[in-house]
């Protein structure tokens, strides 16, 4: 069944994905308080802007920067994935359209779904292994980014194949059985949360499409955040495995509200500023217990995936206009010839560094390093945007004339 967008006051009993716009959704004053936990620790509040999901500070095992540049091995693996996917899709379509009856088509689709289910489970296992390897120090940051880029590329091929199967099933006189339709919806949802916007950009970078000099990477034993600044946008993705419990009772389904409305209400609790600035929509991803909460607000986009077992966000994507993120603090440092100004927003958010000539205010070309890692150079305006690290990290600015300014970022 294709996702259907409906008003909040309509109740539908469905098996597959259902989406609900929640424009103007409010909680009546006489309604009982939420049955779910208050905003959890992994949701970090930001004054007058979008909250965000993050690893709790006590669980962070690594926090650093890496690059995403051309990598032959990752590119070959990604290209091989696409070639295999195209070949299998063509073979599937040939068998499907040549089938003599619906029963034969059922078996062809079932076999393809079984194959995709194995591929998806393999990707989930690979992600877990890569995260653990990175957290314990056995994998470099560049390798971690490349691995996430490859998983992203493979997950997108799974999602594309699901779409092709659905399209083929609608192109002939054939009715897709409800059980197979539900399995396809589940596969699509699982593949969707395996991909991410930073990993996708990294995938293009390792294939030679672009060069990303500074990707912020942060990990725990079971989760990670990737963040970067691209053009005028700040982009981040976070995965928190501990907040995903697929075998637990779906609390949204068990609530007094229609399940998608219950998930939407939870999303509104976790992201109140975004809700006031946008009209979010919610969608159940099949019967996976995953609920997508999406909002396009004035200065960015939020996609959060809530788990019915925990009612918490376990996967989150954000894109924000760097010019719109409010500055939380300005830090300055100077010597006799150089003046540096750092405008902070929030930890792991966008951060601007501007370098001037002391006295004249003339912008200077300089290389900016965080924790000893050179991350880029200021432009003709003396400005560079980076991802703000956790507090206490040393920052070093080296001008083209050889002058150095070094200091630490305060909390």
Q: Given the structure, what is the number of helices?
A: 8
Helix residue percentage = 25-40%
Helix/strand structural class? alpha+beta
N- and C-termini, Cα separation: 50 Å
| Sheet with the most strands: spatial strand order | 1-8-9-10-11-7-6-5-4
- Strand count: 19
Mean pLDDT: 88
Please outline the major beta sheet: 9 strands, antiparallel
Sheet-strand content, in percent, reads: 25-35%
- C-alpha geometry: globular
Q: List low-pLDDT spans.
A: 1-33
From N to C, what is the helix and strand string?
Answer: EEEEHHHHHEEEHHHEEEEEEEEEEEE
Radius of gyration: 23 Å
Would you summarize the structure shown here?
With 411 residues, the protein is of the alpha+beta class.
List keywords for this structure.
disordered N terminus; nine-stranded antiparallel beta sheet; 8 helices; single chain; Immunoglobulin-like; 34% helix; 411 residues; globular; four-stranded antiparallel beta sheet; alpha+beta
């Amino acid at each position: 069944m294709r996702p259907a967008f409906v008003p909040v006051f309509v109740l539908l009993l469905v098996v597959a994905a259902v989406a609900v716009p929640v424009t103007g959704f409010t909680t009546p004053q006489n309604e009982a308080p939420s049955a779910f936990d208050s905003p959890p620790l992994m949701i970090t509040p930001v004054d007058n802007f979008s909250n965000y999901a993050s690893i709790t500070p006590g669980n962070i095992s690594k926090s650093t920067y890496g690059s995403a540049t051309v990598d032959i091995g990752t590119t070959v693996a990604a290209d091989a994935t696409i070639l295999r996917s195209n070949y299998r899709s063509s073979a599937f379509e040939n068998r499907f359209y040549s089938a003599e009856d619906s029963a034969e088509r059922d078996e062809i689709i079932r076999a393809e779904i079984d194959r995709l289910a194995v591929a998806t489970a393999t990707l989930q296992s690979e992600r877990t292994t890569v995260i653990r390897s990175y957290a314990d120090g056995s994998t470099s940051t560049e390798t971690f980014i490349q691995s996430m880029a490859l998983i992203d590329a493979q997950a997108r091929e799974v999602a594309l194949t699901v779409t092709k199967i659905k399209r083929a099933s609608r192109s002939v006189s054939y009715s897709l059985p409800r059980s197979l339709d539900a399995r396809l919806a589940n596969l699509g949802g699982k593949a969707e949360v395996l991909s991410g916007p930073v990993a996708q950009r990294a995938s293009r970078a390792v294939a030679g499409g672009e060069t990303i000099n500074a990707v912020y990477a942060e990990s725990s034993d079971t989760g990670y955040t990737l963040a970067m600044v691209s053009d005028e946008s700040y982009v981040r993705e976070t995965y928190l495995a501990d907040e995903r419990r697929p075998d637990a009772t779906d609390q949204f389904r068990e609530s007094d509200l229609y399940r998608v409305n219950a998930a939407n209400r939870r999303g509104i609790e976790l992201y109140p500023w975004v809700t006031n600035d946008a009209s979010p929509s919610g969608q159940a991803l099949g019967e996976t217990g995953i609920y997508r909460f999406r909002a396009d607000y004035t200065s960015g986009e939020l996609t959060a995936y809530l788990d019915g077992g925990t009612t918490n966000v376990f996967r989150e994507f954000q894109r924000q206009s760097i010019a719109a993120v409010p500055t939380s603090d300005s830090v300055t440092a100077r010597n006799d010839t150089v003046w540096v100004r750092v405008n902070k927003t929030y930890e792991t958010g966008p951060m601007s560094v501007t370098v001037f000539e002391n006295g004249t205010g003339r912008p200077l070309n300089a290389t900016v390093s965080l924790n000893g890692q050179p991350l880029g150079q200021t432009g003709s305006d003396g400005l560079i945007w980076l991802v703000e690290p956790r507090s206490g990290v040393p920052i070093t600015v080296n001008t083209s004339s050889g002058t150095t300014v070094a200091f630490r970022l305060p909390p």
